[in-house]
Amino acid sequence: MLRPHLALLLALAVLLSGCVSKAEYQRKSDEAAHLATAQSELERDYSQLLKQQQKLAQRYDQRGLELEEVNNANIGLRQDQLRAATDIERLEKVLSERSASAGAAMSEMRQTIDGLEETKRTLTAQLEKEQLARQARIAEMKTTYDQLVDKMESEIERGEITISKLQGKLTVNLVEKILFDSGQADLKNAGIQVLHRVGDILKEVTDKEIRVEGHTDNIPISPRLKKTFASNWELSTARATNVVRFLQQHKGIPGARLSVCGYGPYQPIASNETATGRAQNRRIQIVLVPAQTTP
Questions:
Q1: Domains and their CATH numbers in the chain
Q2: Taking Cα atoms as reference points, which of 241, 254, 244, 167 lies closest to residue 198?
Q3: Tens of pLDDT, residues 116-135
Q4: Do the beta carbons of residue 180 and residue 187 sit within 8 Å?
Q5: What's the number of CA atoms in the CB half-sphere (13 Å) around residue 172?
Q6: How far apart are CA 174 and CA 283, in angstroms?
Q7: Residue 294 pLDDT class (50, 70, 90 cuts)
Q8: When you count CB atoms within 10 A of the terminal residue's CB, does the N or C end of the chain come out lower?
Q9: Are 152 and 193 in contact (CB under 8 A)?
């Protein structure tokens, strides 16, 4: 500290100066005390300044660390910015590609929709055409049905013929006794007369195929007829064939529109347990079906 040295210097100054007055001594003492006080304040201020300097140095160091962190953060942000820019560029490229793809898909979808609408219009027109044709066929079938019913009225009343129309098919059902003798396939005169009237109507129906079906009951062929008809298959087929031959040769119906089926006893319409049922099963069916169109 400087204060002891200062007091010593003052004392030496008094001794060297020789005799001094009390007032002068007191003044010098006061000045020395004042200087000591000032020195003490300066030392205190100096100490405070040192502390402030240390605090400022610490704050400077702290700010340096914070600045370093900020710089590091800025570097990270810059890197993030670069990555974000790269991602944005990639996403823009993907979006552009997706937009082009979506545009192509929408164009293709539009073409598909246009195609479907055109197909719908075509199908609607075809459906309307088919409906008109179907209505015409139904009207024609009704006319054919009415003509057959009118011409076959007496046979229908006697139960020898039934006529039905179902699902686009018109069927003329003729029981055996009106066409054939028992166990025979040759047409009887009465049957020929019936077929003449039926044939006159059928030959006018040019847009239908005529399928003649032969049916029998389940009674086996008798031994005396075995040489002619081995089974009911042969009998039913022979009867249907003779009806077809008559329609072709005597009514001029083209053979291309005629077909023969022999079902034997395998498609009964009544029970074979009774005589009445067996009589119903022994029959010829003339079926009008829509003509098959050649592709």
A1: 136-290 (3.30.1330.60)
A2: 244
A3: 888 888 888 887 777 766 65
A4: yes
A5: 26
A6: 6
A7: low
A8: C
A9: no
